[in-house]
Description:
Blueprint: E1 3-12, E2 15-25, E3 30-34, H1 41-49, E4 56-61, E5 64-65, E6 76-79, H2 91-101, H3 106-119, H4 135-148, E7 153-157, H5 165-182, E8 185-190, H6 193-199, E9 202-207, E10 210-215, H7 217-222, H8 227-233
Helix pairs in contact: 2-3, 2-4, 3-4
Amino acid sequence: xxxxxxxxxxxxxxxxxxxxxxxxxxxxxxxxxxxxxxxxxxxxxxxxxxxxxxxxxxxxxxxxxxxxxxxxxxxxxxxxxxxxxxxxxxxxxxxxxxxxxxxxxxxxxxxxxxxxxxxxxxxxxxxxxxxxxxxxxxxxxxxxxxxxxxxxxxxxxxxxxxxxxxxxxxxxxxxxxxxxxxxxxxxxxxxxxxxxxxxxxxxxxxxxxxxxxxxxxxxxxxxxxxxxxxxxxxxxx
Length: 237
Ligand code: ADP
Ligand code: MG
């Protein structure tokens, strides 16, 4: 199994941000965590990544108990909404960063970077700096950098959240194509139901720290399991 979350809780003071959540993400699956702001999506992602430790429960990554592993031990790629790239490094250098830290041979790094530039369809822009790219191009570079080290798991927290509607739409289709090529187990946080519907294999609907329903986009849309899901999903326009 890709990711197994077992009865995980996380409190801040008396407040349960994540309240006894269980969730399975199959290997190679792209799972969206969808729900309103403050419902616990980012906290669960941070628990999966190791940036937070659960108060109770277990987290398994690719068959290993990762509950108390450090971030480094988990071999995870991340992309967040902001501050994704190093400003003083070119696109190539940004993508190469994690590979150089791991002291891979230079020729190998070079080959891998060119492959990734190709994958994100930015072949001609490798020598640019982040401020010479559009917002959408920057997030594609951030994805390439996250994928460079061949993570077991890719975690995306509202990666397109800061971009305008047209660019977001293009990136959805683009992320879907990328996932179909790379097939890394991915968890994608969003509060945008249309985005989740279009990109994800499966969707987990969050509400106040718990999960209301998990299912494919069509299951969630056609057969909402609770009144909350019904009102949150509504018609997709
Ligand atoms: P989402 O990503 O769904 O918007 P979050 O997981 O970021 O929600 O937050 C869930 C709840 O937990 C929110 O009410 C938030 O204020 C609270 N929370 C998250 N992180 C912290 C923290 N470090 N300290 C205190 N409260 C937090
Ligand atoms: Mg969030």
